[in-house]
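Weekly structure sync - notes
Attendees: PM, LS, DV (DV joined late)
Agenda: review two folding runs queued last week.

Item 1: First target. Sequence and structure tokens pasted below for the record.
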Amino acid sequence: MNMEAFVLGCGGMMPLPYRHLTSVLLRREGDLFLFDGGEGTQVSLKRLNLKWKKINAIFVSHTHADHVTGLPGILMLSSQVDRDEPLYIYGPPKIAEYIETSRKVLDMYINYPIIVQEITAPCLCYEGDGFYIRAFPLKHTKTCVGYTLEELDRPGEFNPEKARELQVPCGPLWSKLQSGEIVEASDGSLVHPEQVMGSRRSGRKFSYVTDTQYLPSIANEVKGSDLLICEGMFTEEFEDQAAEKKHMTSKQAATIAKDANVDKMALIHYSPRYTDSELKLLLSEAQTVFPKTMLTKDRMIFDIPFKD
């Protein structure tokens, strides 16, 4: 089962000719989840040839303009295609007002259900087949939340050789063992699933954190993530400015990644003061704390494989 993260935009505050505003699309098999929708989101969706009309749900961190101004266009475009499934939108207070006001002012033609749910973090805001998405509190100049998508543990691998040794014939009985049922072998003995199944295997975890001052509690929320996409807006030179605006330096983001023991971290939401060539300053400072730090760029794709 594939899981991929598509960076649709990596910039903060204002769009640049070479850097759209922050937005990430996560694809897990047939499910598509959009995290924030800054200006330019539609452009990257089109350039990556992603089936944006299939987006199941949108998760908004907060209602500052650089994270939501791309949403009205997505809502309107979705009415130009055959869509019957509802679109769910989750976010902190004011997201419902923003969506409703945009629909009225722009006189949107919407021919599918839009279900907006305002959330108070921490909370479990979305559940799917074998996974869930959880929101947790951040600290910004207005209410802001981070998100994690976490898969449930998977069953261990089935051992056909062991099943044959225990005289369980190939067929429906093997399926029952894999489903956790006790079966009767050819010799009349009972065979338990744990006799033919390996240890349970961990699922994957994706975390999205942006627009927050440094909080030690974030590490607990994103602990063990296979991929953490995290704001690293400033270098240490502007730590005071970051604190004043309730943002993070790349080194603070790296501290979270290290404390959370994540597999890898990708920085996002760069200040427009940095040109693309200057982003290496953010990267080098972060890597002094967490070497497995990377920079995101618009339309970059991250594969998130199983660990075992």
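Item 2: Second target, run right after the first with the same settings.
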Amino acid sequence: MTGHFCRMDKVLFSFGHGYSAAALAARLIPQGWHVIGTTRSEDKMAAIAATGVEPVLWPGSDLGAVLREATHLLVSAGPDAKGDPVLNVMYDDIARIAPNLDWAGYLSTTGVYGDHQGNWVDEDTALAPSTKRGQLRVEAEAAWQSIPDLPLHIFRLAGIYGPGRGPFAKVLKGTARRIIKKNQVFSRIHVDDLAQAVALSMERPDAGAIYNLCDDDPAPPQDVISYAAELLGLPLPEAIDFDTADLTPMARSFYAESKKVRNDRIKRALAWQPKYPDYRSGLTAMLQHNT
């Protein structure tokens, strides 16, 4: 590739190589991609390597050489009270390599839209987060957008579920509850559909693009728990009113916002179609594969 001296043409550097990035890597590696992923935990290095990803301990390693090798950059690491953990340390390094990248992706959240009392939002909806987490994401998006010449794509993710991450374990343990809050509705995305969408964007870069990633069927959370119990042939978990439910502050904060998220833009732009257009198809497939 012109200007990319001694570089492979398909190298993804993954900052914060977690659940979503692993699903993307599983899709890319069989296509000949070299994927390099960071982890904060030395204990996870071997498990990451076993998936075919080159693990890098960070913080703790000099990333200069591997960043120069990258053709594509994916950022999954979320912000904290101090800001974006990658840019706090690596802003200048990333700004230096930005013009050489073919694509960069930032995994954000639909939490940036705030509460819409169960109404629809799309990518043109004003950003008005009602939680601290959402506000930090708005600031992180802006920080990444501030890097000159970075071919940035922002993906605003709904609630992610998939193998190893879903309601079945709690239902089987008997710890699941159906929390009932009037007009509460969430959008979701199966991790395989997330990975497919990001891969399509990598094939057809459109620097500056912002996409919502969610399925076609926003639904109340208690409906998902009920369906999981039905699939397992178990009794419906107890229904508890939100106002009196014993929830942690973190769990309660998830109910602070209610909205339905549109995904029309990415369907039009990239011809993306979710394999699991609703939670019923996603959960059914997960159970069939014992996940």
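Discussion on item 2: The longest helix spans residues 132-145.
Action: LS to circulate a short write-up before next sync.
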